[in-house]
Automatic annotation (TrEMBL):
Residue ranges, annotated region (Disordered): 238-277
Keywords: Signal
Pro residues: bias regions: 256-269
Record-given protein name: DUF3304 domain-containing protein
Domain of life: Bacteria
First and last residue of the signal peptide: 1-24
Length: 277
């Protein structure tokens, strides 16, 4: 009987220790952090907030499509689960008098991370994707490369094809920029293209050859065959057959189904593009 009593006490003690250990597991805490945004939305970001499960908040300001939003500090956040809310605007609609600010939110899980010793290195990156999911990276960096290089594609298009763009679309530089990043967002939403060369070819064919070029059977075959192979789509498009290119230019081909982008994820084009030419 005495043995059973001792065993019972020992078991109770073990359970108590286990419970205390479990209860003592603390959530990761991040103090003195700075926040910067990476905006891959085809809209202007107009401020955002990050809220943890304990009510602590951090936030940031405005950002153009494809750009970073500067740095704000200094915040404290706790845990692994967060809610991100943001405002965004369609600038082309604003110029037409429709000054509507749109709103969205997303839940984000960020694995526990070791905070850098230097406060200046405690940078939380907030990545806003075209499908409105958000990813957090900590620790991040002030000059991290863009995961969807919208600005680089726009620069490439304007440096190589400005004359053709100006002839086809009569618009200001800022309007042209928004047109290009809209197409880049479409390429990501439909095919998850992120490689710079791939996105350059997609933008060129969409904007200057045929805005439904991806409905061509041969192009769809290329997109599917080259999926998840960065740079492969660009190489395939650069070696496109003369007959396929001719069909794209003349818009004479039987289209095939392509992925559909849900309403609202990309703004409507500023003006209706011609289908070819």
């Amino acid at each position: 009987m005495k043995f059973l009593t001792l065993a019972s006490r020992a078991l109770t003690g073990c359970l108590l220790v286990a419970a205390m250990t479990a209860c003592g597991k603390s959530e990761p805490t991040y103090s003195g952090i700075s926040v910067t945004a990476h905006n891959y939305l085809p809209y202007n970001l107009d401020g955002f907030t990050i809220t943890d499960a304990y009510g602590n908040k951090a936030g940031g300001g405005n950002s153009l499509p494809g750009g970073g939003g500067g740095v704000t500090c200094c915040y404290a956040l706790k845990g692994t689960e967060f809610k991100v809310k943001w405002n965004y605007v369609d600038v082309d609609q604003w110029h037409k008098g429709n000054e509507e600010t749109l709103h969205a939110e997303a839940k984000v899980v960020m694995p526990p991370s070791q905070a850098p010793e230097k406060v200046g290195d405690r940078i939380l990156e907030v990545h806003f994707y075209p499908d409105r999911h958000v990813e957090l990276q900590f620790p991040g960096a002030l000059m991290d490369a863009s995961r969807i290089p919208m600005i680089d594609v726009s620069r490439w298009m304007s440096s190589r094809y400005q004359a053709q763009l100006s002839k086809r679309y009569d618009e200001r530089d800022d309007q042209q920029f928004r047109r290009i990043v809209r197409v880049v967002a479409m390429a990501w939403l439909k095919y998850r293209l992120t490689d710079l060369d791939d996105l350059q070819q997609y933008a060129y064919y969409n904007l200057l050859v045929n805005n439904r070029f991806d409905t061509h059977p041969e192009i769809q075959h290329i997109l599917q065959a080259d999926a998840n192979k960065p740079g492969a789509f660009a190489k395939s498009m650069q070696s496109l057959s003369t007959s396929t290119r001719s069909e794209l230019t003349s818009d004479k081909f039987e289209p095939v189904p392509v992925p559909v982008i849900p309403d609202g994820l990309v703004p409507p084009p500023r003006v209706e593009e011609r289908k070819h030419g």
